[in-house]
Amino acid sequence: MADKLLTIEHLKKSYGDNLILKDFNLTVNRGEVVVIIGPSGCGKSTLLRCINGLEEIQGGEIKLYGEKIDRNKKNIAEIRQKIGMVFQSYELFPHKTVLQNIILAPIKVQKRSKSDVIKEAEYLLEKVGLSDKRDVYPRQLSGGQKQRVAIVRALCMHPEIMLFDEVTAALDPEMVREVLDTILELAKQGRTMIVVTHEMSFARAVSDRVLFLDKGEIIEEDIPERIFDNPKTERARRFFNTFEYDAVKNHTDTLNRKV
Amino acid sequence: MLRRLERSDRLNWSVIEKYLPLYEKATVLTLKIGWLGVLFSVAIGLAVSLIVHYRIPVLRQTAKIYIEIFRNTPLLIQLFFIYFGLPKIGVSFSPEFCGVLGLGLLGGSYMAETFRSGIEAVDKIQYETALSLGMSKAQVMFHIVLPQAITYSTPAFVANIIFLLKETSVFSAISLMDLMFTAKDLIGLYYKTAECLVMLVVFYLLILLPVSVIGSVVERRLSYASFGD
Ligand SMILES: Nc1ncnc2c1ncn2[C@@H]1O[C@H](COP(=O)(O)OP(=O)(O)O)[C@@H](O)[C@H]1O
Ligand SMILES: [Mg+2]
Fold it and tell me: In this predicted model, what pLDDT tens digit does every residue of B194-205 receive, in sequence order?
């Protein structure tokens, strides 16, 4: 029997009169990696923000292990500890060193012992190849390094589920790989994740299930092999095609630039 | 003839020596009231800026009115009001307390605006990131927002302190024996205008220069800690 970790039922979310998510339903099982793909502005970030209780919702419910996520409830901070979120813009705390960024919440929020947390942080930093950046300020890191620190910071809270919102979108091409490899490694460890991305080959490699979203609705949902190679809907097909074109175009652009 | 003129133009050091203790005493008083006023203004400013930031009803409107009134009236008039006006309704304070109160209220309105704009300069997504790590609102404010806000507002903060310490020069109006009072008094009594004024300037510089120097060091330090370069 699948172990339901996150359930979203009839979620409705609007900004003013602008209805973003109409009647959104999604169940994520423990250990599952769900990739969400869709055109810009279709509500991917909004969905992740709702899951983290960062947005007021207008209807339906979101539950983590049966516990309702409601940003106005007292237990919201406790639930958020179980949900690790990584943003496109890294959002490291600029006034704290790498290590301080990572250990702050485990120590202050979870009241864990400082030496244990430091040990774990050092271990995780080593795994992402950033041991030497332990005492450096975020300003001194590249985008890819910042993003890996942000991932470690979220991991150090021992979340039940990780949410990634286009975490490579702001990176220079040569840094995309190092971050994606880190996420892929997490998937191999069997972590539960929802990943919003535009990196199609990464999506294929990392996901158990892919959702194609448009205008706040799930248009198509399938295992990666089927949805990428043989999309059932015209909209998904067209969307994936534009990506192939972009990939080809970017590639020729780079070639042209090199010449 | 020429030599004589020169000599009379020169400062009379024995006069300066004679007045020195008076100036020292006045400086101590100015420093005491000035810094107590600054401290008071920081407390008020912090409280008011948090009220405005958290949009606490009623208090917030009151805070706005307070800020506008005190930022837009001269300290001299505020002091008159506190020192001469309040006794009329049965509340009277010592001149020292009035000085601290006046300076604190004036400074509080400036500090509140400084802190508020510092808090607002911190990106909203920094709050959200901290919240997503499970921090409470108070933890987010204390660990994430305020440290960054302080960095953003340090230049204005230091400028406020210097401004407030300079404003102490109107304290003489409520018969506080501060530097200005001492200088005016001595000039009135002995006509040693040049000496008295030079000493006044020197002592004010002694009070303010260290603030300015320390302020810019702190600014550099903080911006290193906050932004890593
Ligand atoms: N804070 C907000 N206020 C109003 N509208 C918003 C806000 N955030 C997002 N939106 C709108 O919601 C829609 C979905 O946005 P978003 O979830 O960020 O899309 P995606 O992440 O898929 O690109 C967009 O049309 C966007 O303009
Ligand atoms: Mg987005």
Answer: 888 888 999 999
Instruction: Report the share of chain A in percent with pLDDT over 90.
Output: 86
How many Å lie between the centroid of ligand 1 and the Cα of residue A167? Answer: 17
- 3-class secondary-structure state, position B213: helix
Q: How many CB pairs under 8 A join A and B?
A: 74
Q: What was the ipTM of the complex prediction?
A: 0.90
φ, ψ dihedrals at A26, nearest 5°:
-160, 135
Query: Ligand 1, atom 6: nearest CA belongs to which residue?
Result: A15
Strand A161-165 and strand A83-86: pairing? parallel
CA of A43 to the centre of ligand 1 (A): 6
The model carries a pTM of 0.83
The CATH number for B20-227, chosen from 2.60.40.1500, 3.40.30.10, 3.30.980.10, 1.10.3720.10, is 1.10.3720.10
Amino acid code (one letter) for A141? L
**Residue A58 gets which letter from DSSP?**
S
E-state strands within chain A: 4-15, 18-29, 33-37, 59-64, 67-68, 83-86, 161-165, 192-196, 209-214, 217-222
Model confidence at B225, in pLDDT bands (50, 70, 90)?
low
Among candidates A91, A108, A157 on the partner chain, residue whose Cβ is nearest the Cβ of B129 = A91
Q: Does residue A13 lie in a domain region?
A: no
Please give the tally of structural domains in chain A.
Answer: 1
- What CATH number is given to the structural domain containing A233? 3.40.50.300
Domain ranges (residues) in chain B? 20-227
Neighbours of B69 (CB within 10 A): 12
Domain extent, residue A196, equals 33-56+85-254
A138 lines ligand 1 (CB under 6 A): no
User: Within a domain: residue A183?
Assistant: yes
**Which of B150, B34, B12, B51 is closest to B102 using CA atoms?**
B34
pLDDT digits (tens, 9 = 90+) for A83-126: 999 999 999 999 999 999 999 999 999 999 999 999 999 999 99
What tens digit of pLDDT does each residue of B36-74 get? 999 999 999 999 999 999 999 999 999 999 999 999 999
